[in-house]
Design brief:
Blueprint lengths: L29 H13 L4 H12 L5 H4 L3 H7 L8 H19 L4 H23 L11 H6 L1
Helix pairs in contact: 1-2, 5-6
């Protein structure tokens, strides 16, 4: 599958485990794993950071086959979800950083185009999250407002 705004295929990335079976080397119970997820979320870590920490420190490749729930549902049960989804928040931060760069470097035309592509991703994602009621229907991305946050 190709990338959204490039002509390359972009297959170079880490690969998730193909099967959703429980690996034999995991010694933690599902309650312990769920407790770790809640503990790290209370410390302010994002779901992707929690997944990386569980993978690197506890050798847990995926939470779902072990706990039989997604990490998002575990966080929702414990009222630890954020108002804005993590991926949308990361793209908005990237757009704000690029806007600051463009303020200082007005002749950087390549990154003007990059900002347009990033903002297109923000709008596309926000339409999806509005449709599934994850963000309010009246939420709107404005570049000036994003800089203030």
């Amino acid at each position: 599958m190709g990338r959204m705004h490039t002509h390359r295929h972009g297959k170079s990335h880490s690969i998730r485990p193909k099967t959703l079976i429980t690996p034999k080397w995991i010694t933690q119970s599902s309650e312990e794993i769920e407790g770790l997820v809640v503990k790290y979320a209370k410390e302010g870590m994002t779901p992707s950071q929690i997944g990386i920490k569980l993978r690197d420190q506890y050798a847990i490749p995926l939470v779902k086959p072990l706990v039989k729930k997604r990490m998002g549902s575990i966080l929702a049960e414990n009222d630890l979800t954020t108002d804005m989804p993590e991926d949308l928040e990361n793209i908005v931060k990237k757009a704000v950083g690029l806007q600051k760069h463009l303020k200082a470097n007005k002749g950087d035309r390549r990154n003007v185009r990059s900002l347009e592509l990033i903002e297109a991703k923000v709008h596309r994602l926000s339409v999806y999250y509005k449709r599934i009621n994850r963000i309010p229907k009246n939420w709107k991305y404005k570049s000036v407002v994003a800089q203030l946050e």
